[in-house]
Amino acid sequence: MSGNDAWDMQSAIPKGATLLGTILSFDKMDITALMRDHVAHLLLISLSNIYMNVHLKSSANSFVLTTLLPVPKFIHKKKRMKDILEDHLIHQCLNIVLEPLKKYAQHGVVLSDSIGCSWYCFTALASYIADTPEAMMLAAIGGKTLLV
Q1: Own/partner pairs, 73-81, CB within 8 angstroms, 24+ separation
Q2: 45, 43, 100, 101: which is closest to 71 by C-alpha?
Q3: How many angstroms from the chain centroid is the CA of residue 3?
Q4: Which of 9, 11, 44 is nearest to 26 (CA)?
Q5: Which of 3, 20, 37, 141 has a C-alpha 20 to 30 A away from that of 81?
Q6: Is pLDDT above 70 for 119?
Q7: Which whole-number Å values give the CA distances from 6 to 24, 80, 123, in the listed order?
Q8: How far apart (Å, rounded) are the C-alpha atoms in residues 97 and 91?
Q9: Contact 126, 136 (CB under 8 A)
Q10: Model pTM?
């Protein structure tokens, strides 16, 4: 999202409301330490107005774990069909988990800041951080398709 995009979005919401850019991070992770031979997709969320040098420090906890999405093992004979079923399940899970964020982006939500003041906020998705395999899955493309 560029600065012009943010200004355009800000002008489209009601006067006095605040635009809260959100950043989602998505990655596949082996959680064998917690459970034997299990893999999950981690979905993390953060605000886009946090300085980059703070985002880069893992000790700053600028990203919050939103959910662990399942990576099931389907029993279909064809690998391509297993991949399609897995991707479809992830999309359905993301649709459920991100429903409040989508609702607040459209209609807004009243949130309080650190000193207790209430603000009418709209949660626009500013950025999505993902590795290439996850980005291809989220974009619903595969094989030798370019991400351009």
Answers
A1: none
A2: 43
A3: 20
A4: 44
A5: 37
A6: yes
A7: 17, 39, 12
A8: 10
A9: no
A10: 0.77
